[in-house]
Write a structure and sequence with these properties.
Blueprint lengths: L2 H22 L5 H20 L3 H5 L5 H5 L1
Helix pairs in contact: 1-2
């Protein structure tokens, strides 16, 4: 990954939990809290599996169906 992408991911890692906590405390809009919670869950899934989230949700093509 490039340094720029890592910087963005690090920012999201800090911002997402803060947005979720802030939403629960009614300091900011609940929509931003929900977005923060979703982003935090996505990053946790990436850390647990060691794969990018896009690779986790992407469907694999069934090449056997094409050949038949």
């Amino acid at each position: 990954m490039t340094e720029h992408t890592d910087t963005v991911k690090n920012f999201i890692d800090v911002f997402a939990p803060l947005a979720a906590i802030g939403s629960f405390l009614e300091l900011i809009s609940p929509i931003f809290g929900l977005i923060g919670a979703i982003l935090a869950l996505m990053r946790i899934a990436e850390m647990v599996t060691g794969k990018d989230f896009v690779d986790l949700i992407r469907r694999k093509k069934d090449t056997d169906a094409i050949d038949q």
